[in-house]
Amino acid sequence: MRRLLVVLASLALLLTFAPVASAATQNSCSSSDNLKFKLYENLAGDTSDGDDILWWCSAVASNLANAAHTLPGDCNTIYQPNPGSWNDCIDSVRVWLPSSLYHACFYANTNYGVLVLDVTGPKAGETRYTFSYGGDTTYTDHLSSFKYSYALANCPHG
After folding, report:
1. pLDDT per residue over 51-88, tens digit each?
2. What distance in Å separates the CA atoms of residue 148 and residue 140, rounded to the nearest whole number?
3. For 73-76, which contacts have Cβ atoms below 8 Å and span 24 or more sequence positions?
4. Which CATH class is domain 22-150?
């Protein structure tokens, strides 16, 4: 009986200190930034691996193959197609745009090919948009590049 109590106590101690997935954030933006993206590693509501976040706080376009993923989440493993970068790692995004003259343009390919989402301002991060391409809603890591478009009717296709 004593041996059983020792085993149970050891198990309880082990479970107390078991690793838990937690979200990490790369970069940050000022609350006064009115052109920014909050890019999520997971879909809304999915915290299974911590849901790492990348803040993008400028109007400078990005090819995510060149954006280093410095967090410990699933997209920074050797099992991903682009380990160590945010390319094909983003499932969803929140967008801040100051007026209807701005568009946030999101692409499935690096170098701005295959438009998958065009968001028109004004936006204040109220909606979390999910990326899917070609009807694929189960594997959504399709974001590879993005840019802003100003005073155009819509986002350029490539």
Report:
1. 788 898 877 778 888 888 888 766 766 666 667 788 88
2. 21
3. 73/24, 73/41, 73/49, 74/41, 74/49, 75/41, 75/141
4. mainly beta
